[in-house]
Amino acid sequence: MERVYMMRNIEKYRNAFINVLELEEDDVVENVVLGETAEWDSIAHMGLICEIEDVFDVSLDSEWMTEFNTYQSGIELLKRLGVDFSNE
Amino acid sequence: MNSFKKMEQFGNRTAVYADREYSYSEMVEISDGICGNVGERTLVFCLCSNNKESLFGYVGFIRGGVVPVLLDASIHMDRLRRLINLYKPAYIWANSDNQDLLKTMDRSFVYGDYTLFKCPNYFQHNLHEHLALLLTTSGSTGSPKFVRLSYENIFENAKSIAKYLDIHENDKPITTLPMNYSYGLSIINSHFICGATIVVTGASVMSKEFWNLCKEQQVTTFGGVPFVYEMLDRLKFEELLLPSLKKLTQAGGKLSETLSRKFANVCNQKGIQFFSMYGQTEATARMTYLPYEKNLEKAGSIGIAIPGGELILQDDKGNKITAPHLTGELIYQGPNVSLGYAESLFDLSKKDENNGVLRTGDMAYFDEDGYFFISGRIKRMIKVYGNRISLDDVEAFLLEHGHDCICAGTDDHMYIYTLRDDYVQIKKIVKEKLNLKGFKIMRIEEIPRNHFGKILYSSLPKHG
């Protein structure tokens, strides 16, 4: 059987930030904070939410959107929606 | 007329909530303290964020007759230096952490997180006696062009807004727009002249912090450009429980017909007055409003002139249009029409060049009931997240930096077309120097032109 490389959820998640916030691959993506990181303003926030909904096929409610303000908090919030971030 | 000089009358009422309450008396004392360190009538740059320091600085400068230029605190240092060279401010009121200013300027006064930086080269300004304030024309296109506003402009517009929105001392707005942006500033001015309390926060409507503040502080009103309403829609505004909220305003570009109907409906159900408005910095802030009772019946309309203002339509021969449904250029007359523009410090002594008349550059018509509708623009202008951007200015800016490009697009969607492989460089300078968002760059093989060599903007490819 052919082995297909599946991107891990954490990679998909990190890529969403790199794409939407237009960061470089070697930036410390893990440290970005809404409103503090220049690239993560309200406009980018809307973009991130759309991207995360697409990538993980989830529907985010207003509570989720307003609690999501750091790279880490997004992971915790996605776990609550059943996204698995353990080493798949 | 300088209504801020009468702020003492509100005494112990709360003027500002920013981590704690500040009464009008306390605000006046702090503000006058900041301005007192400037000493004389001169020019000051104020690097604004939505915080108490920026706000108190602004209030103090207006009260004390010092002319502030309100700039966004995130302004690129290259652009700030260029503006300093062109306008030679005596002081810069900015965050104390500003490394570039710390290196080159002396600190003369500190309040909270802000410092009054003294500029090393003193220049004796010749400021026109009516000049009160300078605002940028568009968010950030790097244009050094400012709108010159008088004390009469600021306070006549504030008074008119307070009248049609029926603003009371018990109203409590929360900041949702930058204070250096004319619409954001008009919310501050119109509430301060009524003795109301302003909740000052840098938090976005997309943050929990913002909604917690709204609840805790029993906020009654806020404003938004179309993008703010798109976010509110995304947050399912209809399901939010905010019983204190009584009034919402919308300006800074046209809200889509669908969203304006949706918000009109939701607000009407919730007992919130929803006002659509139209304005330009060239008219201090606002020129028209759609009364909330008409927000469904006349959805999509910019409404009627604000109290004290008048709207006229002119056809291309310069004749006044008197019949409904005929399109012409929208001209506004009123005491809030700015004195004119400034492009360097030599323009600051100029007298009123507009004489109360503003050609808006927008095409409009009115219906049989006298409600106005915008149908297009004469100039190649688009609104990007509430800010008016001249596409020709962006083209000129890019050419100056060695990129021969064509700019086109619609509100919130700007397209830059290039013939070369300079995508990365264009993206970088537009982002950094112009501080623009939401633009797309496309490589094209040739520029579509007609027989006369005129660019056919409508034939440019569109993004998917």
TrEMBL record, chain B:
Pfam family, one: AMP-binding
InterPro entries from the UniProt entry: AMP-binding_CS, AMP-dep_synth/lig_dom, ANL_N_sf, ATP-dep_AMP-bd_enzyme
AMP-dependent synthetase/ligase domain residues: 6-341
Coiled coil start-end: none
PANTHER family per UniProt: LONG-CHAIN-FATTY-ACID--COA LIGASE, SURFACTIN SYNTHASE SUBUNIT 1
Protein's UniProt name: AMP-dependent synthetase
